[in-house]
Amino acid sequence: MLPGGREQIENAASRIAGLHDAKVKVVGHADPIGSEQSNQQLSERRAETVRDVLVQSGVSAPIAAEGRGEKEPVKSCNDASPAALVACLAPNRRVELIVEGMR
Predict the structure, then answer these.
(1) Which option is the CATH number for 5-102: 2.40.30.10, 1.10.3470.10, 3.40.50.2020, 3.30.1330.60?
(2) pLDDT tier at 80 (50, 70, 90 boundaries)?
(3) CA–CA separation, 74 vs 47, rounded Å?
């Protein structure tokens, strides 16, 4: 988790707690570096980690967590050096929260 990530999740948790009949889906993603299988597992772990922080932060709504591996990139890169490629692909290593509910 990046610095400040836990704080962002805790802030989201406080907003979710104010929703009536909330349902939450946590979707983890990975970049294409590595094998498809390892990226799938990594994306699942990312989603589960965020789900765990939401629960620890008091979210009692149902939370589904899933990983989508490298299948839904938000950025493509053609950088030649490994370090530049890793940096360029950073936006693909993410977790999305999909929240439904009424205030």
Answers:
(1) 3.30.1330.60
(2) confident
(3) 17
